[in-house]
Write a structure and sequence with these properties.
The complex is a heterodimer of chains A (314) and B (256).
Chain A lengths: L11 E12 L7 E12 L3 E5 L6 H8 L7 E6 L2 E2 L15 E4 L3 H4 L6 H11 L7 H7 L16 H14 L4 E5 L7 H17 L3 E6 L2 H7 L2 E6 L2 E7 H6 L4 H8 L39 H5 L16
Parallel strand pairs in A: 3-8, 3-9, 6-7, 7-8
Antiparallel strand pairs in A: 1-2, 1-4, 4-5, 9-10
Helix pairs in contact in A: 3-5, 4-5, 5-6, 6-7
Chain B lengths: L2 E10 L2 E11 L4 E5 L6 H8 L7 E9 L2 E2 L5 H7 L4 E4 L3 H4 L6 H13 L3 H14 L5 H4 L9 H13 L5 E5 L7 H18 L2 E5 L3 H7 L2 E6 L2 E7 H6 L4 H8 L7
Parallel strand pairs in B: 3-8, 3-9, 6-7, 7-8
Antiparallel strand pairs in B: 1-2, 1-4, 4-5, 9-10
The chains are: A alpha/beta (314), B alpha/beta (256).
Pfam family, one (chain A): oligo_HPY
Family (chain A): Belongs to the ABC transporter superfamily.
Keywords (chain A): ATP-binding, Nucleotide-binding, Transport
């Protein structure tokens, strides 16, 4: 399935096609964390991937980086298939994908100076002209921080350092896996904007994963909404935000309380996310869907950009 | 019962963390406490329960009805903590004991504070789980925290807090660790409990959207001081203090 909302003027950088990723644990049922998801990111484009915890968005991001083996489907980056990371040196064509992880307390090495960690990125990107201090400056930190250790910094500063390290490798695709969820509310929007600005100004694509739609909306050109291993809606940010079509997207947006002082309790989405090891038959959202019809219980809506029987393409 | 905090100061060594906080909690009302991290919101909540970190010294007055909580001995405070004043923490994954069944955690302080027998306590625990809408309460009571989702765990944490019919509930960022869809359910639950049981709730949150949804009164803290207090609609729509306005302007959400 190709992505019908993709921007056609720009070259596709990353394309994920009908991706399936399964987690096997001995003695437990097979969990299909990603169950046939398709997504694309163009050069210089920012795509936000949102969904509740456990929907498979981090697994998808990890698969794109080669950190999770793929069961079926394909991931192509700049014309090269993405292969899982092994013990040997990675195909240099794939070092153009760089990731910023969720928790800057565990993604930075506590025993090495931050300058040395950023220098690793510079070596990966074969950049002989920039210094770690230059990178720190780009992410808005003082140049002399390079000689310090991670424990000397706050969460927001650490995440900036992690971003500097990823950028040092001169990525053409930057992936942020919940890069702001461990940060203070006041730092979240700042760091998200910083990632966008840095990616776009260097011409790289950005796949930004978050459960917080209100932040994703600020920085993404397109939004993809994921539910239980599938992308249920993709579209331009303004369209998804102002006119959500999938009932799940509506529920997600309706649950965000507005700071308008009106005292309106947000709408509740009944039920829990089903166990991905035993997804419901038909449409995966039908047990919680307020407008479910008979067809939803029987057949899975396998189309886009809105995977819902109410929005079947003609 | 009313809980009044007046002129509360907390200092660690020479550093003043709270510099004179005044707050007023009324039964059946949710008082929201906003501000960025480090402004002293959590410290205010902990001071009420006498749970300040080691070496911190509190002065001022915290009165519950007629009694001054700050002047109480540890023994007297032990009776109030978990009894008349209860607390719900941010992260339900760490605030519960992972190796005890939720039934054990629900009944422990009921037996201690209310002197209930094993059977009575268990019956009340099942009733409480129903009240916070845990499906299949009679069997859920024998399960362990990890067998529940984050939202369910936070509901159970609320049930534990409610076990001894407290008059005052302090909820410190109770929905920050949850997805928005789950948050909506927990907020509805908190608001409903406050209305039905006449609880006085102190809701500590940095999320002004959450504040707007459930709080009746809002106080905004900055650097250990309350800079603005007032009814929800007034503070959020027409803030008087420049800091409140700055907080509202920094939000990623919709602008009016």
């Amino acid at each position: 399935m190709t992505d019908p909302t993709a921007v056609t003027e720009r070259a596709t950088l990353l394309s994920v096609d009908d991706l399936v990723v399964e987690h096997r644990t001995p003695g437990r049922p097979l969990v299909r964390a990603v169950a046939g998801a398709s997504l694309s990111v163009a050069e210089g484009e920012v795509v936000g991937l949102v969904g509740e915890s456990g929907c498979g968005k981090s697994t998808l991001a990890r698969a794109v980086c080669g950190l999770n083996p793929v069961t079926s489907g394909s991931i192509t980056f700049g014309g090269h298939p993405v292969t899982p990371l092994g013990l040997r040196r990675r195909n240099p064509a794939l070092s153009g994908i760089q990731m910023v992880f969720q928790d800057p307390y565990s993604s930075l090495n506590p025993r090495r100076r931050v300058g040395a960690q950023i220098a690793d990125g510079l070596r990966t990107g074969r950049d002989t002209t920039s210094s770690p201090a230059d990178l720190l400056e780009r992410v808005g930190l003082p140049r002399d921080f390079a000689g310090r250790h991670p424990h000397e910094f706050s969460g927001g500063q650490r995440q900036r350092i992690a971003i500097a390290r990823a950028l040092a490798a001169r990525p053409s695709l930057l992936i942020g896996d919940e890069p702001i969820s461990a940060l203070d509310a006041s730092a979240q929007a700042q760091v998200a904007r910083l990632m966008r600005d840095l990616a776009v100004s260097s011409g790289a694509g950005l796949l930004f994963i978050s459960h917080d739609l209100s932040v994703v909306r600020l920085i993404a050109d397109r939004i993809a909404v994921m539910y239980l291993g599938k992308i249920v809606e993709v579209g331009r940010t303004e369209e998804v935000w102002n006119d959500p079509r999938h009932p799940y997207t509506r529920a997600l947006l309706g649950a965000i309380p507005a700071p308008d002082g009106a005292g309106v309790l947000p709408a509740e989405l009944p039920g829990d996310v089903p166990d991905p090891a035993a997804p419901p038959p038909g449409c995966r959202f039908h047990p919680r869907c307020p407008v479910a019809m008979d067809v939803c219980r029987e057949r899975e809506p396998d189309f886009g950009p809105v995977a819902c029987w109410l929005h079947e393409p003609a | 019962m009313t809980l009044t905090i007046s002129g509360l100061k907390v200092a660690v060594g020479d550093r003043e963390i709270l510099r004179g906080v005044d707050l007023d909690l009324q039964p059946g009302r949710v008082h929201g406490l906003a501000g960025e991290s480090g402004s002293g919101k959590t410290m205010t909540g902990l001071a009420v329960l006498g749970l300040l970190p080691h070496g911190a010294k509190a002065t001022g007055r915290i009165t519950l009805g007629e009694r001054d909580l700050l002047g109480m001995s540890a023994k007297e405070l032990n009776k109030i903590r978990g009894g008349e004043v209860a607390m719900v923490f941010q992260d339900p994954a760490t605030s519960m004991h992972p190796m005890l069944t939720i039934g054990r955690q629900l009944t422990e302080h009921m037996r201690h504070h209310l002197g209930l027998g094993r059977k009575e306590a268990r019956a009340r625990a099942i009733e409480l789980l129903g009240q916070v809408r845990i499906p299949g309460a009679a069997s859920a009571i024998d399960r362990y925290p990890h067998q529940f989702s984050g939202g369910m765990r936070q509901r159970i944490a609320i049930a534990i807090a409610l076990a001894c019919s407290p008059k005052v509930l302090i909820a410190d960022e109770p929905t920050t660790a949850l997805d928005v869809t789950v948050q909506a359910g927990v907020l509805r639950l908190l608001r409903g409990l406050c209305d039905d049981l006449g609880l006085a709730v102190l809701l500590v949150t940095h999320d002004l959207g959450v504040m707007s949804a459930v709080a009746d009164e809002v106080s905004v803290m900055k650097e250990g001081l309350v800079v603005e207090t007032g009814p929800r609609g007034r503070v959020l729509r027409d803030p008087e203090h420049p800091y409140t306005r700055a907080l509202l302007d920094s939000l990623p959400g919709e602008k009016a």
